[in-house]
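Task: fold both queries, return tokens.
Query 1:
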Amino acid sequence: MRILFRKNFYVIFVLDVILLISGYYFATWLRYEGHLPPEVQKLFYHTVLSLVIMKIASFFIFDLYHGMWRFTGIKDLMNVIKGSLLGSLMFIAYIAAIYRFNNFSRSVILIEFILSIITIGGLRLFVRLYYQDGSDFMESLMFWRKINKIRKRIIILGAGEVGERLLRALNHNPEQPYNVIGFVEEGLVNKGMKIHGVPILGIVSDLPQLIDYYSIDYIFIAAPSMRSEKLKMLIEECTGLGIKFKVIPSVTDWLNDNVKIPLRDINVEDLLKRDTVNTDMASVRRSLEGENGHGDRGRRFYRFRAGKTDTGI
């Protein structure tokens, strides 16, 4: 039970207990519209401890206290739902066996079940967002946001998986000097949609207008499949607008790099690179094995290339 030696466990545990008690009381309060009869109040005080014990036990069963809350994901939220459901079913069995549902409203259990999912899951999501965005998260809770004039305004070219990863890398590093204004992509399919709250503003051909309208400082290129001819044309169109370009390196470089934001300036190789040529090795092998009547000679040649000939060479 290593979690018993982690102080964060006790913080979350106590908060869960408080949320469960509050949720149960609020569910009862809603059911009786704020006017709790004396017998209902008495039943609440007699059953609240049992509810908390059953819910907490269910949370332990579904490992809600073994994860790192700063990395809470969909699986953790699903476990919150499963744990709340199991705890509610246990509580129903307890009420039916002990109290026969006398003076107990079944709707209280349903309301409490919904509230426990919202509050327990919301607590973990709050922790995740706090660790993810830091002070920016607290700022995002306000109805207004401070404008950081120091950060450079950027547009990410590429609204695919690489662009999304780049945005997350930027968001996870509060010290980085960039403010992502939006995305552009090569097609109109996703225009108007958002990625982590950042809008897809348009297509590549809209960049000159977007640069002027949003006072953009940088274009980050996160489109590995973009042809060098299009990249060169884009840079030529933006010449004179005071824009700087940065590009994502190869996936291997990104994984092996120790820097938090894997970006570099555009260089000549990016504009001169040729499209990758993929060799169909299966077709080559079939050809060597002699589809045109030279099967034996093809096979000997293939084994010779592999260092395994019948002649012992």
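Query 1 returned. Query 2:
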Amino acid sequence: SYQSQSYGDGVAYDAAKSGAPLATAPKSPLLSQAPQVAAPQAPVTGLFEPTQRPNEPVTHGVDMGPGAGSDALMMNQIKQDDKDIVAKYLPSLSSMASAQDTPQSFRAFVSFLQGSL
């Protein structure tokens, strides 16, 4: 309902509202399709459940103790195609990293890229 301080404003509002149709959102073709079902995932092992990898040390993937180090995770490896792109843009990125107002996180990122080549 419309509320106003002036007498008769509600009548003018109702008349204006009835003269123009309200806008409606166009129907999306995505909404008319059948809903997508997420792919089933492996069940999550609970924190207090028995291990699913009894022959793997808990330090696997850590740079200390038995098992492979962090290099086994292959997280810091860049593919050769990507290395070529990084090498191409590294001079510009290094220049931006040396600017006085550059965030430390960006400088660390550029340092990581330099070390990966």
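Both queries returned. Flag for query 2: The mean pLDDT is 78.
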